[in-house]
Amino acid sequence: MSKKLSNIDNDISAWYTDVVTKAGLADYGPVKGTMVIKPYGFQLWDNVKDVFDKMIKDTGHTNAYFPLLIPKSFLAKEAEHVDGFAKECAVVTHTRLKSENDEIIVDPDSRLEEEVIIRPTSETVIWSMYKKWIQSHRDLPILINQWANVVRWEMRTRLFLRTTEFLWQEGHTAHKTKEEAEKETLDILELYKKLAEEYLAIPVYTGLKTDAEKFAGADKTYCIEAMMLDKKALQAGTSHNLGQNFAKAFDVKFQTEDNNEEYVWATSWGISTRLIGAVILAHGDKNGLRIPPKIAPIQIVLIPIFRDEKQRKIVEDYIDPITKELKQNEIRTFIDWSDSSPGYKFNEWELKGVPARIEIGPRDVESNTVIIARRDNGEKLSSPRHDLTQSVKDILDQIQNNLYNEAKDFRDNNTHSVNTYGEFKDIIKNGGFVRCGWDGKQETELKIKEDTKATIRCIPFNENPNNLTCIFSGNKAMHEVIFAKSY
RNA sequence: CGGAGCGUGGCGUAGUCCGGUAGCGCACUGCAAUGGGGUUGCAGGGGUCGCAGGUUCAAAUCCUGUCGCUCCGACCA
Q1: Straight-line distance from CA A280 to C1' B13, in Å?
Q2: Interatomic CA–C1' length for residue A14 and nucleotide B71, angstroms
Q3: Strand B near-CB residues (< 7 Å), A 392-451
């Protein structure tokens, strides 16, 4: 397989597919729209998962698991919810196959009386269970999360960014009061922001979705929105205040302290393997991936360099304690003894986005140093053997910060406040985020979308609509919003 | 579902117009040298050309059908 990547500047779409497959993150599955997450890609996901799993456990949530299969009738209980998901549900109609004339066919005698769907999300099963579990205010809150796969039969798919089946976490909480549910929704959004910015090194805008863009079945959807290298927006996480919609649909009431009956207040929130796509498209460059150190499966790759057996032995004696030392200090380290040439290895590990590389050859053994090469900016420096661990830690921190700062500068430089629709269209055409006034009408939002393909990514928390007029209608603005073309 | 394109060793492709029994690059195996930015040389192994029919002495190539995938749109995390 050729390791040459498509040009990131001319054809980022081809570059993306090349990187994902050639760096060994994922491969296409046999069924359209499915993907195999390969070990290197899965380690990346695992690291993201571990970070977030700890965050939610630290805030009182626990994991559980609900079934993949859901009665078809459940989906229909919440009107908006069914509208939102009906078009993309995989439906199980039969329970067995049989052979007939050397062919495997669906056994027509095995038709299910009540068809089941494969979860596109789990609100319905979960609320059917919460009905059984909640009677009193003493049963609240329930703070459950599950790590699971879901299936949404999408028209167009792309590895990680939109696949028919994907992995995610979905939190589902139940509360006594509206205020408590709202707080939960916002608290989780903060965790998402922290995860994106501090770990994935991706700056995000936080805000509220418009009615047109919110989750089907939610009262309010909050989101984190990131900018990719092609200046398009990617929704990287969502947190929903579901109000009492699902409680009403599934008749989940609780007895209050003063002995009244009230519907339970709900939230749900999710991040998915799409985040891997976000990391790729936020940090990549012409040589491949650049993975932030905090989530990198391999943080340091060691490349031994030698000519003959004698040199190999010398290098080995020098490098082994170094590897051991780094590992003992919990730096994820890999030493590449494969017999490709050093140059080949440099390119290979750069493609895979390993944050830093240590080159060790006879010259370094001689001078009691090592060469450290950074993936983020290509710098190479010679570092003394003693306090190597500290140098490595410092460099990894610098890389983490640098990736974040680069991404933030890029986003800030491509986010513009505008006052005229002409400017608006120019920016959308050339790529970028636009901050501007909006009159709050869905009709306006829709017209702009038809005209420019841009959608309102969010109403940012730090909006200031006071002196603004709507970019499209010229009426007084109800909100300041961020428009962009999105994935 | 509309538009476009593609199915030929593991991957990427040439050959298809004009039928004559499959070629190249990468990867793979072995040996030797090489090794601080994709290293050479030599020697090897692997494909009945998506599938099913048809035309023909002869089909990767022509005809009919069929399946699948990718890209672009409408839908979406």
Answers
A1: 28
A2: 10
A3: none
Whether residue A438 is found in the same domain as residue A374: no
Report which of residues 278-307 in chain A place their beta carbon less than 7 angstroms from any atom of strand B. 287, 305-307
A123 and A215 assigned to the same domain: yes
Cis, peptide link before residue A141, omega less than 30° from 0: yes
Report chain B positions within 7 A of protein CB atoms: 1, 10-12, 25-27, 34-39, 68-77
User: Does A278 lie in the same domain as A133?
Assistant: yes
- Neighbouring C-beta atoms of residue A450, cutoff 10 Å: 8
Residue A235 Cβ under 7 A from any strand B atom: yes
Say yes or no: A303 and A248 in one domain. Answer: no
The CATH number linked to A310 is 3.40.50.800
Asked if A4 CB < 7 A from strand B, the reply is yes
Same domain (yes/no): A113, A251: yes
Full-model pTM: 0.95
Q: Are A389 and A325 in contact (CB under 8 A)?
A: yes
Our measurement of CA A97 to C1' B8, in angstroms, reads: 34
Q: Which residues of A207-245 are buried (b: 16+ CB within 10 A; e: fewer)?
A: bbbbeebbbbbbbbbbbbbbbbbebbbbbbbbbbbbbbb
Distance, Å, A264 CA → B31 C1': 75
The pLDDT tens digits for A25-50 are 988 887 878 888 999 999 999 999 99
Please tell me whether residues A191 and A336 are part of one structural domain.
no
Give the CA-to-C1' distance from A305 to B43 in angstroms. Answer: 28
Q: pLDDT digit string (tens) for A159-199?
A: 999 988 999 999 999 999 999 999 999 999 999 999 999 99
In a domain, A23, yes or no: no
Which residue range(s) make up the domain with A355?
Answer: 298-395
CB A383 within 8 A of CB A370: yes
